[in-house]
Design goal:
Elements lengths: L13 E5 L7 E7 L2 E10 L13 E8 L11 H4 L4 H15 L4 H4 L3 E10 L4 H23 L11 E9 L2 E4 L3 H4 L4 E8 L4 E8 L6 H26 L1
Parallel strand pairs: 4-5
Antiparallel strand pairs: 1-2, 2-3, 3-5, 6-7, 6-8, 8-9
Protein name: Ribonuclease PH
Family: Belongs to the RNase PH family.
Keywords: Nucleotidyltransferase, RNA-binding, rRNA processing, Transferase, tRNA processing, tRNA-binding
Length: 237
């Protein structure tokens, strides 16, 4: 029995509310159970120096957690004067994932920054940030197209992410914190809407896992990504 009472292949409840901030070109609040992430997409008519005069655009991301997103207060990273290695790793993952769903030539020489701020954390924050970040990015691109600034849609496909793991000897989908903290194997699967892999992060935590178990995790990830893509489509409809 999972702590939440969910079936092994059951996602947490997913809601995505769009247009939640006034100024960002695209924004949403994604809720995956008790994990809540605010995602905003901001447009700049410039690119990093290495892309100047190439005709290509850029999508990047930043990630952070509010001090009381967790059960005990965390110190703000700004107070420490630097980002943690975990934060840097996660925001690079978000950026790489979202760029995989974009035709940067169609975007043109402009940059979109997707900010993902964790309001409340209960496991799977990086996955929620990627899934919600795609929605914010989609809305920003829609605004560009409506204004006539771009004529070809740069969005190639949906991008979403879900966690899967081995908990109490069973393969389970969409781990919450009680499961994540006790899982023998924990994995994050980033995929396109048509099922292609973008990035896979999986590791054993004190117990190895077999090829057959990995195949179970992949099958669960396929189901989870389909559920998330359906939620994305409903949000932007």
């Amino acid at each position: 029995m999972r702590p939440s009472g969910r079936a092994l292949d059951q996602m947490r409840d997913i809601t995505i509310d769009v247009g939640v901030t006034r100024h960002a070109e695209g924004s949403c609040m994604i809720r995956c159970g008790d994990t809540h992430v605010l995602c905003t997409a901001s447009l700049e008519e410039r690119v990093p120096p290495f892309l100047r005069n190439t005709g290509q655009g850029w999508v990047t991301a930043e990630y952070g957690m509010l001090p009381r997103a967790t059960t005990t207060r965390m110190r703000r990273e700004a107070q420490a004067g630097k980002q943690s290695g975990r934060t840097q790793e996660i925001q690079r993952l978000i950026g790489r994932s979202l760029r995989a769903g974009i035709d940067r030539n169609a975007l043109g020489e402009r940059q979109i920054t997707v900010d993902c701020d964790v309001i409340q954390a209960d496991g799977g924050t990086r996955c929620a940030a990627i899934t919600g970040g795609w929605v914010a990015l989609r809305l920003a691109l829609d605004k560009l197209m409506k204004a006539g600034d771009i004529v070809t849609d740069p969005m190639v496909d949906h991008v979403a992410a879900v966690s899967c793991g081995i908990y109490a000897g069973q393969a389970v989908l969409d781990l919450d914190y009680p499961e994540d903290s006790e899982a023998g194997t924990d994995g994050n699967f980033v995929m396109t809407g048509d099922g292609r892999m973008i990035e896979l992060q999986a590791s054993a935590e004190g117990a190895t896992f077999s090829r057959d178990q990995f195949a179970e995790l992949m099958a669960l990830a396929d189901k989870g990504i389909a559920d998330l893509v359906a939620a994305q489509k409903a949000a932007i409809a």
